[in-house]
Amino acid sequence: MAKPSPSKYWRLASQSKDASAIDCSGQALPIAAVQSLRPRHGVLLAEWEPSTQLGRVRRLGIVRSIVGNGSCAAIDWAECEIGLRPNPAGRRWWTQSKPFFGFAPDVAARYGLDDLFAEHFPEFSDLTFGPAPKASSHDAGPSASPTGGYIYVVRSPHGFKIGKTVNLKQRTKLFEVKLPFKNSLEHYAWFDDYTHAERSFHRRFHHKRLEGEWFDLQPDDLEAIKCEGKHIPLEGLR
Description:
There is one protein chain. The chain has helices at residues 31-34, 91-95, 105-111, 113-120, 137-140, 168-178, 194-204, 219-226, and strands spanning 8-12, 22-24, 27-29, 41-49, 54-67, 72-84, 100-102, 149-156, 159-165, 184-191, 209-211, 214-215. By secondary structure, the chain is of the alpha+beta class. The chain folds into 2 domains: 8-126, ph1033 like fold, CATH 3.10.590; 149-236, no CATH class. It has a 5-stranded mixed β-sheet. A hairpin with a 2-residue loop joins β8 and β9 (159-165). The longest helix has 11 residues, at 168-178.
């Protein structure tokens, strides 16, 4: 029988320079990161250590509830001293300037995070958790002034990006220049309200979010996305 464990893991910088950082159970965290947290999520406060090429974890946390209309998180903390060694592809997440990112399930498994949290929080199965925050009415419905455009999915070794654009050709050329890793256009489709469509996809796959618009999607997730919208072929794109 599987051990009770957090449903998702996040790395947060332990020394955030974010001016909007807020106090969450005695720890200053960037508000953008807090807004991604949900009850039952696991948090690793960690810094990148260039000399050893390790992610140095100082504290582990379990999110008990989201409070203050989603602006703060109640977190149980445990002190630790652990080094995590990412593979070459994973180092970019640790060395980026953004102070937080989510661990993909396979990466969490490779680091043994379930066992790590079970060791530091043996009472996990007895904890009580608050409900996940409800989506705001702003996110729930179509846009007040719908605009047509493309929803696209970009494949990379680090996950899938779900984004929107009016000029798809220009956007894909930008990826070729700006993204420092191999990527390819997996899918695109036209939506009469592309803002609402993007928001809906992000909300549907929020539990698989890696960071920003990047998600850990599986083949059935991709098939579900490809069933929606209108596929209007563009010259030069498949």
